[in-house]
Design brief:
Helix content: 55-70%
Largest sheet: 2 strands, antiparallel
Number of domains: 3
Strand order of the largest sheet: 1-2
Shape: elongated
Distance between the termini: 44 Å
Bound molecules: arginine
CATH topology of the largest domain: Fumarase C, Chain A, domain 2
Radius of gyration: 31 Å
Number of helices: 19
Oligomer: single chain
Length: 483
């Protein structure tokens, strides 16, 4: 890193790639060994600033920590340390004011260094002492990922809270519970909603788990084999808030497991959102009519004046495809790489940013749609047909000592007789029911209300009132965001 001065940024090798915007000289972190500059096509492929400029807050933060660590190690004199820290602060301010827009630099690290030259002159050339972009970018991206996970986690908790809020209001609404898309047994609307909330608690666990492994610090490992400067990495770890140090430079500079793991957690989260949105989309149709989306979360059709489209739900379902694509792109990127840094890894950021952006775009809209959803009690009730009580009848026969398999067959016969007569199972003629089993007419008479049926399933995790209420309370605690 010699040969730099504040006016000499286009020294050797910087034969002005065409990307140099607005006549500004590009800053280069390398070039001494080249006689000629990069060809335009190669330069366009190589540069990543358009994507990685988003890492500037992390890059500046890590640079500051690096300066402090170099100072502690005696590599920088105290006055140099002070000047560099002050310079980085001003670089941060300029970047916050938009200095990255249209910048000619290869990547965010080059940009930060160029701005630092502009602030403190030649001394900026000491910033990268013992540091490489390989440990630098791995550190920046881990910092960024930790922040992204924290933000997503808050949004997932808020979505969970929205489901819990609707569940509290929907405790007394009954509708068919479906398996195979067929009406199976009556359940509470609250129960359906919390069924979609539980996966979100697992998503949060997975995100926390991914964050735990992301909080490992590569900084101070240099390009491949460790830093040549006697820097205390635990100082860096504390300054940057990491849990521990990466144990091996070759591994850490090429390790993007934390990106892949985060992408998996996000792909599964998006899958859960997709299933929830898809189910609500069906329930919002005229065929079911169980829910009505608020105006603010419904869209119209350009041709059909009567339409009230659930675009938000369909997009939440559609976006999950992107997340799955991002995950497979990332694992595909990694699978052929040897240990250590390869430039392939530059692709990690576009993939991760897309996934995080997509999730952060989707979650608030889905939450809003759920918060403002109106359940339609009448439609839910109308979908409850008497066949949903078949299991209750079989259970009653079991109570009278009939083995369940036989009870199942007997009630099956009753259902068939009801179908043939075009009536519900409660309205089959007494003689017919009696012919199937002498106790059936009495049991039919004691079936009670839909609510009675639901209350008969009172095991923990069932859809009886107390069991659902217990789940609601557990989930409400789980989604409380600890600030
Ligand atoms: N822009 C690069 C990336 O995102 C930074 C690391 C470059 N390292 C290198 N040895 N060229 O991966």
């Amino acid at each position: 890193m010699t040969g730099h001065d504040s006016a000499g940024h286009d020294a050797p090798g910087a034969a002005s790639p065409a990307g140099a915007a607005g006549g500004r000289a590009p800053h280069q972190l390398w070039g001494g060994r080249f006689a000629l500059g990069l060809e335009e096509a190669a330069d366009r492929l190589n540069r990543s600033l358009a994507v990685d400029h988003r890492l500037w807050p992390q890059d500046v933060r890590a640079a500051r920590a690096w300066v402090l660590a170099l100072g502690r190690a005696g590599v920088l004199a105290p006055d140099e340390e002070v000047t560099l820290v002050g310079g980085l602060e001003r670089v941060g301010e300029r970047l916050a004011d938009g200095a990255a827009a249209g910048a000619p630099d290869e990547d965010v690290h080059t940009l930060v260094e160029r701005l630092l030259y502009e602030e403190v002159g030649e001394l900026a050339g000491k910033l990268n002492t013992g540091r490489s972009r390989n440990d630098q970018v791995a550190t920046d991206l881990r910092l960024w990922t930790l922040e992204a996970i924290a933000e997503i986690d808050r949004e997932v908790a808020a979505l969970g809270e929205a489901l819990v809020g609707q569940a509290r209001k929907g405790l007394d609404l009954l509708l068919p519970g479906y398996t195979h898309g067929q009406r199976a047994q009556p359940v509470r609307w609250a129960y359906v909603l919390v069924a979609h909330a539980w996966p979100l608690t697992r998503d949060r666990e997975r995100l926390a788990d991914a964050a735990g492994r992301t909080a490992e610090l590569p900084l101070g490992l240099g390009a491949v084999a460790g830093s040549g400067m006697p820097v205390d990495r635990t100082v860096l770890q504390k300054l940057l808030g990491f849990d521990r140090l990466s144990p091996n430079a070759l591994d850490a500079t090429g390790d993007r497991d934390f990106v892949a793991e985060t992408l998996f957690a996000l792909a599964l989260l998006a899958t859960h959102c997709s299933r929830l949105a898809g189910e609500l989309q069906a329930y919002a149709s005229s065929e079911y009519g169980f829910v009505r989306l608020a105006d603010g979360y419904s869209t119209g059709s350009s041709l059909l004046p009567q339409k009230r489209n659930p675009d938000v739900l369909e997009l939440a379902r559609g976006k999950a495809a992107r997340l799955l694509g991002d995950l497979s792109a990332m694992v595909g990127l990694l699978k052929g790489l040897p240990a250590g840094y390869s430039k392939d890894l530059q692709e990690d950021k576009a993939i991760l940013f897309d996934a995080v952006d997509t999730v952060l775009l989707t979650l608030p809209a889905l939450r809003g749609a759920i918060e403002t959803l109106e359940p339609v009690a009448g439609c839910m009730e109308r979908a409850l047909d008497q066949s949903l009580l078949a299991t209750d009848l079989a259970d009653k026969l079991v109570g009278a000592g009939v083995p369940f398999r036989e009870a199942h067959t007997l009630v099956g016969r009753l259902v068939r007789a009801a179908e043939a007569a075009g009536v519900g199972i409660r309205d089959v003629g007494t003689d017919v029911a009696q012919g199937i089993h002498p106790k059936l007419p009495g049991f039919i008479a004691t079936l009670g209300s839909w609510d009675d049926s639901v209350e008969r399933r009172a095991t923990a995790g069932g859809s009886a009132r107390a069991a659902v209420q217990a789940q609601i309370e557990e989930l409400a605690t789980a989604f409380q965001v600890v600030l």
